[in-house]
Amino acid sequence: MDSADFMVLRRLCQWRQENRHAALITVVHTWGSSPRPVGSVMAMRDDGAVVGSVSGGCIEDDLIHRHTGNPWPRTPQILKYGIDADEAHRFGLPCGGTVELITEFDPDPALLADLLESIDQGRLIKRELSMKDGRVRLIPADAAQALTRTDSLMSSVFGPSYRMLIIGAGQLSEYLATMAVFNGFSVAVCDPRSEYASQWSVPGVEILPGMPDDAVNGFAPNARTCIIALTHDPKLDDLALLSALHSDAFYVGAIGSRKNSAARRQRMIDHLDQTPESVQKLRSPVGIFIGSKTPAEIAVSIMAEVIAMKNGVAGA
Predict the structure, then answer these.
(1) Secondary structure of residue 128 in the 3-state scheme
(2) Three-state secondary-structure class, residue 178
(3) Which listed site, 80, 167, 245, 309, has its alpha carbon 20 to 30 Å from 299?
(4) Which 3 state secondary structure label does DSSP give 89?
(5) Which residues contact 212 (CB under 8 A, 6 or more apart)?
(6) Per the database entry, which stretches of residues form a coiled coil (predicted)?
(7) Could you tell me how many helices (H) and strands (E) the chain has, helices first?
(8) Which of the listed CATH numbers 3.40.50.2300, 3.40.630.30, 1.20.1070.10, 3.40.50.720 matches domain 163-310?
(9) Residue ranges of the domains in the chain?
(10) How many CA atoms, within 13 angstroms, populate the side-chain half-sphere of residue 33?
(11) pTM (predicted TM-score)
């Protein structure tokens, strides 16, 4: 899940454990353009304090106005914003945008704590909300899935954040790690070269010891993992990429020119028992083409491609 949404759940749990009235508000449907995607969440306390967002700000203001100082319902409530052009303009929605929200009041703090513990432990959990009485069930899930809603039930799967493993601790890696953290990824870096690893300066990023291929295997890549090799050194990159290509990682990339990237693919076919099909998953040259020249620009191109593939953008 997005790290911002995780922060929302953590703050909501804290408020409820303090016996404060608080609500969880979820985007459940959008039509046309909308500022926040389906599944986005926001928490609101009874005094109007808010964490997270469901729009650019105007909807949040209306929600605070509706519920601050007024009795709170016991059952979940459905609200739609932007039904006509005048209302869309009033709430700052893009042209034609409509947003449907579900507000649930005073969620059980014990269940919120259980949900957060499951996420912390890397487990996927389906959270089912009864629209009739507001009761919540937590069910172990095998795979991520989009939010669904019927007249009687809202169901969404929560789980750990997306992860990025970077091979190489150079300047480009520092820019990319910074952008990945900013975009909600949990980031780790592996570089056995002490002259690089000892100079790492990005806070909140785990430094993994040992050889990169061992780091990839220890990282246990899943469908929420991306692995990017940035050392330019075949001795470090190739075996790590080999392990990554045979994992469930949704994105595997390596830096290099078109010529060097072609040579890497051929090297993996000739010496590492790969086939043209098995190396097809490798994104190299890494990143989308934006004419980037500097390390910061190259990091932007890589991060853009990772996000596009994470979001299922065709042609990424």
Answers:
(1) strand
(2) helix
(3) 245
(4) helix
(5) 167, 190, 191, 192, 229, 231, 236, 237, 239, 240
(6) none
(7) 10, 15
(8) 3.40.50.720
(9) 3-158, 163-310
(10) 10
(11) 0.70
